[in-house]
Amino acid sequence: MQTLFCKLCTIDHLYSAWNIIKTKNAVGGIDKMTILDFDNNLSGNLKQLQKELQTKEWLPNPYLRIEIKKNETEKRKLGLLTIKDKIVQQAIKILIEPRFERLFLNNSYGYRPDKGHLKAIKRAMSEINMRKNLWVAQLDIDNYFDTINHEILFKRLKPMVNDDEVLRLIDLSTKMGVVDVNKKWTDITEGVPQGAILSPLLSNFYLHSFDQFITTKTNSYIRYADDFIFLSEDEEIIRELVIKSSTFLKERLLLQLNEPIINEVSIGIEFLGIKLQKKKISITEIKQTRLIESIEMLNIQHGTFSSKILQKLDSIRRYYAQILPQEYLIPLDKALAERIVTLIRTNTIEFRNKKHIIQELNKIPFFSAEANLARKEKIDEWSGLYMDIKRKSNEKDDNNILEKNKKLINKRKREYLKKENEGTELVVSSYGVFIGKSNKGIILKQKGKVVSDSPSTALKHITVMTKGVSISSDAINYCMDNKIPIDFFDYTGKHYASILAPISVQKTLWQMQANLSSTRKIYLSTQIITGKLKNQLNLIKYFHKYHKTDIGLYQIYESVSSQLSDIIKKIKDIALTESNYKEILMGYEAQGAILYWNYIRQLLLDDGIDFKSRERKGAIDLLNSLLNYGYAIIYARIWQAVLKAKLNPSIGYLHAYQQGKPTLVYDIIELFRAQAVDRIVISLVQKREPLSMSNHLLSDDTKKLLVQNILERIHRYEKYRSQNIRFSEIIKEQIRDISLYIIGETNIFKPYIAKW
Question: Phi/psi of residue 178, each to 5°?
Answer without folding.
Answer: -120, 140
